[in-house]
Design a protein that fits this description.
about 250 residues, alpha+beta, elongated
Length: about 250
């Protein structure tokens, strides 16, 4: 028996029809599939000597969970055997579609009028990311979401958003207010001194333009921290109004 025929017999096409992921999905629904089988369908085909299911199983073992795969940076996929650019692209597109399905509805229909709504909104976007992301929600006077922008991203403790960019987008969208947010990959939703200084600088830049900073949300693994709810936002706002000491 040739090597090719041996490989053919071990491929998914030779499995009993009821055991093939695609056929089971169409017969019983996507909910009947395991995580491995769903990933295998996204991969479509395996590689020499390895079925799509086997490759999917190896990927899950490497990353741990589907959620970890969804939040992994592109660099985490470097050197993954059996994943060329085309196969990786279709897998990542499928994972991203799943992530987006869990996000709130259309931006035009989204309003944020409370700190709880702000926390839930940003938690859906920032939870479980392996890198820090700094996002800004630009709001109308009525609290309607005009734009949600990723202003900065990077490794832990290296994210420093450009305040000029943040303010410029607020002017472009004609926003009356903003809510800023970032995640802590450590999982601990507590503000650092750098977070407090950044919030104060953002308030200082926005106030003269009539742009209200409504909150700064920090997303952790289990909970979120709200500068507004904690009273820190008011404290920092008062600091920006205090007369500065003379440099002379």
């Amino acid at each position: 028996m040739t090597k090719a025929r041996k490989q053919g017999r071990s491929g998914i096409a030779k499995w009993p029809e009821e055991e093939r992921p695609r056929e089971r999905l169409l017969s019983h629904g996507a909910h009947s599939l395991t995580d491995t089988e769903v990933i295998a369908i996204l991969l479509r085909v395996g590689v020499r000597g390895k079925s799509a299911v086997e490759l999917a199983r190896e990927l899950l073992k490497r990353f741990g969970t589907v959620q970890a795969m969804m939040s992994a940076p592109l660099t985490a996929w470097d050197g993954t055997k059996g994943l060329g650019n085309a196969k990786l692209a279709q897998l990542l597109a499928g994972l991203e579609l799943g992530r987006r399905a869990g996000l709130p509805a259309l931006r035009e229909n989204t309003t944020i009028k409370s700190t709880k709504q702000a926390a839930n909104y940003f938690k859906a976007r920032l939870l479980s990311l392996s890198e820090e992301h700094f996002r800004v929600a630009y709001l109308s006077r009525q609290g309607r979401l005009l734009e949600d922008a990723l202003i900065a991203e990077g490794t832990v403790d290296t994210v420093r958003p450009h305040i000029r960019t943040l303010v410029s987008r607020a002017l472009q969208t004609n926003a009356s207010a903003i809510i800023v947010a970032h995640n802590h990959p450590s999982g601990i939703a507590e503000p650092s001194d750098v977070d407090k200084l950044l919030t104060r600088d953002i308030i200082t830049a926005c106030n003269p333009l009539g742009i209200k900073v409504l909150d700064h949300v920090i997303v952790g693994d289990r909970d979120c921290f709200s500068f507004a709810d904690s009273g820190l936002l008011d404290e920092l706002s008062l600091e920006t109004l205090a007369p500065q000491p003379s440099k002379g």
